[in-house]
What does this fold into?
Amino acid sequence: MSFSWKLAANKLPHWAQTAGIALALVLLAPVFAVLWALPYVVPKRNDLILLIPRFGGALNGNLKYFLLYLHKRHAADCRFFFLTRRREVARLLQEQGLPAIFHPSLRSIAALLRARSVVVESTDWWHRFQSLLAGCATKYQIWHGNGMKHVSLSNKRIAEKLSGARLLRLAIALRNVYPTYDVVFFCSRLQRERRSNSFRMKRAELNGQPRNDMLFNAGPDEDIIGCDVRVLCLLRDARAAGKGTILFCPTWRPPASPQPVDAIDFDALDFFAQRSNLLIVWKPHPKDRRTVDERAAVIVADKDSDSYPLMRSADCLVTDYSSIYTDFLLLDRPVVFFPYDRNEYLAARGIQHDYDAITPGPHARCQDELENILREIVVDGKDHYALERERVCRDFWEYRDGKSSERLFAIIRSRAGF
It folds into this structure.
C-alpha cells in the first residue's frame, strides 16, 4: 500500500477501517492458508542463507557488509543471497558478481521456502509475504542500529497498533509482521537488558554490527558499493588538503515535526565552513523527503547511500538521536549533538536511556552554538570528552575488534549444521 493510500485509509471512519480489514481477511484467507502451510511442506537446504535488508534492499546497512564478508570468505562453504525488492539493486549486485535475487519472483519464492537461515535487520521484511514464505527458517534479527530509541515492539506507534482492534491484531499476526526470532543479537549487556522487550525471541546473543567491521579492517575500497563515491572522494581530498571534515547526520522525524533542514541556515553554515577551512557533508536520513542544495563547503550525500565509508574520513560527527554516533565512537573521534527539538522529540519518540548520560559530547540547541562548538573542536583541536566517549563506548559495545560478521556466520553455521 502506497503512502498516499495509507493516508486515505487512516482518514476513514473507524467502522469503515474495521470493515475493510474484515473484508480483506475473508478474501485473502485461502492465500494466507497456503502461505502458512507451504514452508512446512518444502524441504530446507541447510547451507542456504538469505539476507533480507532494510528499506526493501538498500545497500547501506549491516546486511550489505555481511554479504561482502560471505562472498569474500565463505563462497565455497554455503549458498547465500541478498534478497531485494529493488530491481536496480539486484542488477547492480549481480553486475559486481555478488549473489542477489529480486523479490517477488519464482526464484525468490523458492529461495524463501528452501532457506534454512534468514538474517534480517529491521521489522519491515514481512512485505510481499517474505516472512510467511520463510516461516520455518531459523530467523536471526541483527537490527540496524545500536542506539537509544525504543524499537520494534517497544516503539510507541507499534505498541498502539498491537493494542488496537482485534481484527487489526489478527491482520498483523496473519501477515507475520512481528514473528518470534530464533536469535536476536544485541551489542552489549546493557543493550540486551534495555531492548529485550522489543522483540519476541527464543535466544539472545551478544555481537557487534557487521557494518562496523570496516572501521577496523582498513583496506581497498571493496566496501564502497552503495556509497556516494563523489562525496567520498571530495571528503578524502579535503582531508588530505588539511581541511577539517565534518559528517552531519540527523535522524528522521515525522513530516509534521520540525525538520532538520528548517533548523539550519545553510547559507550561514556554508559561510562559516569556508571561513573556517572546513568541508561539511550533509547526509539526510533515507526517509527524508526534503532536499538541500549544495554550497561550496557544504556538500550533500545521496540519502539512500551508505554513510559508513564516509566515516573513516570524517574528523567529527554531528547528529542528534541517531544510532550512528555509537558507531562513530569506535573511531574515538569527537561527536557533537544538535538536539534542537529535544523536548518534543523525546516526548513523542521515547528513548531507553538517559539522553545526557549516553551522549558524550557538547550539545548545541541553536546554530550559533553549533558553529562555536565546531570551531573549538575541529579548528582549534580542543577535545574534552575522550574519557566520556570511552565510557559510553564500553556500555554500548561488547566487542570492538572488527569480527562481527565472523561471529555471526559461526553461529548460523553451527545452528544449521553445514
Notes: The radius of gyration is 22 Å.
